[in-house]
Amino acid sequence: MPLEMNRDVFITCAVTGSGGTQDRSPHVPRSPAQIADSAIAAAKAGAAVVHCHVRDPETGAPSRDLALYREVTDRIRDAEVDMVLNLTAGMGGDMVFGDTENPLPVNPAGTDMVGATERMAHVAECLPEICTLDCGTMNFAEADYVMTNTPGMLRAMGQMMTDLGVKPEIEAFDTGHLWFAKELVKEGILDSPALVQLCMGVP
Question: Which architecture does CATH list for 12-91+116-141+150-198?
Answer without folding.
Answer: Alpha-Beta Barrel (3.20)
